[in-house]
Amino acid sequence: MLESARTTLSYINVPIRFTAGQFRGGCVRAELVEIQKADLGRKYARVDRRPLDPPPVVQLKLYHIHNEGTEHESEQEVQDYDNIQCLGLLCNVDLFPAVPTQPDGSSESGSLPRLPRQLSPVMQPIRPSNNYPPPPILSTDRFPPSTSSSRILVSDAKLPLPPNVHLDSFQISENMKCTAALSGATFVQPACIDYEGKKALVFPFSDLAVKIEGDFFLRYRIFDLFARTASLADIPVQAECHGGPFRIYSTKEFPGLQPSTELSKQLSRYGVRLNTRETERKRKKKASESSAIPTRASKRKATRILRSESECD
């Protein structure tokens, strides 16, 4: 029986020396950049599930580190991403509410979206480590099961990490996470496309919907199933980034969809399954609103009535 594989957050956004995987024997730094953020979405419904629009997309950049740990240390980006082995590369997302913080550090009253009980984040006790701040709460996360009998679990970080992250005017923590409110594929594999004149590895999340209304943003994390380091047996999470905010509307308030972006059309041409539109798609008017607008049939009927009244006179 295979042992469960776990991930560690010790190496996020820093150079990693690999002992297994496609970069075995080398030192590589990974970087994630959101190149297309979602603007809006309609609240998830089983009979009418609409994904975020436009679909969020992040780009993976890889840098080879030379003369690691010396004063001559330098890095060089991978020149041809066609040579990168995509098998095993995965990016996953977590959902957070976009809530501005007050000067005293508290969130605005009533601005946090109210989660149904089954979607509320589970609070776990934090175990302090020496004099360092406690690591983020991660023990409740689960990656999807692999095709084998093994599972990939998220472990606590091996190195101390701050429990809160400051993002511009936002202060976020793991216990604010509401990933359970996401529906669709939260783990995706990369696609190699032409982007800004050269090959690029991108992760398109074309099937994400949100089950609750409010303002949110996504956190992206990248890892390689086959990568290992010398000091740890766990799978290192190599990079993360936070996306831009978007709003989830109710069906009644949903304003409609804009034409598809050029990046969405490009992804579609490369075989990524997503819906593309050439024109704006506005929200359908309510029945009460449409009944107030005279139709051609009603206009013709009114004209006949006027004519018959004039003939009687």
Structural summary, described in words:
The protein has three helices and 21 strands. It has helices at 262-269, 287-291, 296-312; strands at 5-8, 16-20, 27-36, 40-42, 57-66, 74-77, 89-97, 152-154, 164-167, 170-173, 182-183, 187-188, 191-195, 198-204, 209-210, 214-224, 228-229, 235-242, 246-249, 256-257, 281-282. By secondary structure, the chain is mainly beta. The strands form five sheets. Strands 1, 4, 7, 8, 12, 16, 18 and 19 form an eight-stranded mixed beta sheet that branches. Strands 2, 3, 5, 6, 13, 14 and 17 form a seven-stranded antiparallel beta sheet that branches. It is elongated. The model is unreliable at 117-163 and 288-292 (pLDDT under 50). A hairpin with a 2-residue loop joins β13 (191-195) and β14.
List descriptors.
313 residues, mainly beta, 8-stranded mixed β-sheet
Give a quick summary of the entry:
With 313 residues, this protein is mainly β. The chain has three helices and 21 strands.
Question: Could you tell me how far the N terminus lies from the C terminus, measured between alpha carbons in angstroms?
Answer: 97 Å
Helical run tally = 3
| Helix content class | under 10%
Order of helices and strands: EEEEEEEEEEEEEEEEEEEEHEHH
